[in-house]
Design brief:
Layout (H helix, E strand, L loop, with lengths): L13 E6 L3 H10 L7 E7 L2 H8 L6 E5 L7 H10 L5 E6 L4 H9 L4 E4 L4 H36 L3 H6 L2 H8 L9 H8 L3 H12 L3 H17 L6 H7 L5 H12 L17
Parallel strand pairs: 1-2, 1-3, 3-4, 4-5
Helix pairs in contact: 2-3
Length: about 270
């Protein structure tokens, strides 16, 4: 039941599970709401919490839209079991009943929103548009944190032994796996405990390339990785790989790959020619 991306959307496609015991409601919401425009695809629908729980044990979802009053296992019990299994899916409750106790329990379980049936287009659009943007932001933040941790490991010496035993090119390559923002010859020299002139001459002797050329290659390789995730905007990718000016990044990318980053999304298994 996956939806196709709309032509306007360029972000990630998130997986949605709909759980409701009323056939017309669960299938109507799945089929007639334009989820693709929000970067969401309806991957499954279930008729009650027990069926959904069985599915959750085999698959993972980013969002769950769930009724509360259902046979066999209601929405509250389902979300309690879901949280006990460590799921981090964003949950939205949908119910025909305005019940304070349900709403209170929903808050306790970290449910993101409580929609009262019938669910209108505007409310669904507002709620899930916000959730999709929040999840995109978390994904981008996680990528930044991973890169920062790699650089921090070099800075605090957790990789000291590899740095001592490897050649200078390998030592620099390890450094270039970390945070590329603000990295230049001076900072790289300082992190490696060398003078800028010595680093430059040794790199040219070992690799035949300048520090600037090696840094540019690392930035482009990182850019390809980030661009393969459609949730990353070009301006964000430019900043993450160390370009303060997005226009400079676009020029550098176009010079290397023959087209701008906005026209490029990495096809699985294919790497463009340098």
């Amino acid at each position: 039941m996956a939806s196709d991306r709309s032509p306007e959307y360029t972000g990630a496609m998130f997986r949605l599970l709909i759980v409701d015991d009323e056939f017309a409601i669960r299938n109507g919401i799945a089929s007639y709401f334009p989820w693709a425009g929000l970067g969401i695809e309806v991957d499954a629908v279930c008729s009650d919490g027990l069926e959904a729980l069985g599915l959750i044990q085999r698959e993972s979802f980013d969002f769950i839209l769930c009724d509360i009053r259902m046979p066999r296992m209601d929405g509250i019990a389902f979300i309690e079991a879901l949280r006990a299994r460590g799921s981090e899916a964003d949950v939205v409750f949908i119910s025909a009943h305005k019940d304070f106790e349900y709403a209170k329990r929903a808050i306790d379980l970290g449910v993101k929103h409580y929609i009262v049936k019938p669910a209108g287009y505007e409310e669904l659009n507002e709620v899930f548009s916000r959730l999709a943007k929040e999840r995109e932001a978390r994904l981008l933040s996680a990528q930044v944190e991973t890169a920062a941790e790699t650089t921090a490991a070099v800075q605090i010496g957790t990789t000291t032994e590899p740095l001592r035993t490897q050649g200078l090119a390998e030592r620099l390559a390890l450094l270039l796996q970390g945070d590329l923002r603000g990295l230049c010859l001076a900072t790289a020299s300082s992190l490696l405990g060398l003078s800028p002139n010595y680093l430059s001459s040794r790199l040219r002797a070992e690799t035949g390339k300048t520090f600037s050329e090696l840094l540019a290659e690392a930035r482009m390789a990182r850019a390809l990785l980030l661009l393969s995730d459609r949730s990353n905007r070009v301006v964000d990718v430019a900043a993450l790989v160390g370009y303060a000016d997005c226009k400079s990044f676009i020029r550098a990318f176009g010079h290397r790959y023959g087209k701008p980053p906005s026209a490029f999304r990495l096809t699985p298994g294919r790497v463009p020619d340098a």
